[in-house]
Structure of Dicarboxylate/amino acid:cation symporter:
Amino acid sequence: MPKSRFKYNSLNRRLDVLVSGKLWLQVLIAIVIGVAVGALFGPDLNLVSRSVAELVGEWLALPGRLFLALIRMVIIPLVASSIIMGLTAAGEGSDLKRIGVRFIVYVLTTTMAAASLGGGLAWLVGAGKDIAVKAPPTPSLKPDPATIEQAVSPIETISRDLPAMISNLIPQNISASILEQDMLAVVVFSLFIGIAVITADNRELTKPLVSLMGAVLEVCMTVIRTAMRFAPFAVFGLMAQTTALNGLNTLIDLAVYCAVVIGGLGLLLALYLVIVAVFGGMTPWGFLRAVAPVQLLAFSTSSSAAVMPLTMKTAVEKLGVPPSLAGAVAPLAATVNMAGTALYQSAAIVFLANIAGSSLSFGEAAFIMVTLTGASIGAPAAPGASIAVLSATATSFGIPLTGLALVLGVDRLLDMARTAVNVTGDLVACRLLSKGGPAAASAAPPAPSHAAPPPKDAAA
């Protein structure tokens, strides 16, 4: 059993303290109060002039600006250490080799499909287009569109720029990429480092690096946890400013955004059921009955790591997965299989871009999907952790974060839904790999009545 995976649970439990402390309820209350205060200065009541409303909104939004700055401060080391630790969670690499290419293809395919689905639905519906948030411009890493020669057609643009886009995926100067907050470069670099650590001839020499990344992850998650304690104040200020500038119509756009994410997660769940029916040899209804307890627990805890022991137990006892295979796949899947999170983040990126009035080109949208797919690998499986990844990705593509208050306000509900879908994807992976191939061939026969006991620190 991989031990490094379960080290995340100590961090997860600390973040879960925020959940048990009703942080989500505090955020919801902050939304209501923020909307009420903002409405007093908004165009619906028209009690004050627009200039006064904008000035008051700037001061109300100050806690939110400080909150976002604190998140951005640690996002680069957080993402890098999360990805590296996630890849090295396969122990000495034997578990990863046993799982094989099939698991990697499954994760990449479903995550990329989910990211494309979320962004596509948000773009199709136009979520956030009716919201206008005044904010200082965020420095963009993209070239000025005025300096780019207009292409005759999208196909010609892609065929001309695709070779350079592919070659630029590998960062030539990681220091410059970090200074520029180029999230895609950081993700690619971290993936290469994580794979190199796993496949190194002398693993003893890599242990100091793994220990360092574990320490970096611990520190960054501590900063994130501390910042999340001030989330209600940040959400209040940003919601008050947004409502003061746009009026109560903001709530309608927020409902549209939630519908897009939940609808996308429903489609992703349907895709999982099709996969398990076609390739897993189970009926969709039979699979849902088997995994329903895990889904409900994941929905309530918003942490795929917290329900990992039940995930392994369900895979062995109800899905017929060999215990050794379940013990290898479940921890790794809880780390790298985050398709629901990728869908949510891609929809949120488009939502934030529409609020800021930023139009994304086809190339930028494609890069965002690739970035979110890579950033989802190794993302901390804990409540609210994806907000940090979302903030960094938006910043790296020059998208202002002033609409993040709306995303934060409903993040708890959407986090519960996407965690349930993520855990479903983990169990689908266990079932698929148990149906044949290298992973199943090397696994021991299934235990008749019980799963392999999880480590003590894996308990939720």
Q: What stands out?
A: DSSP finds 20 helices and no strands in the chain. Residues 38 and 243 are 5 Å apart (CA to CA).
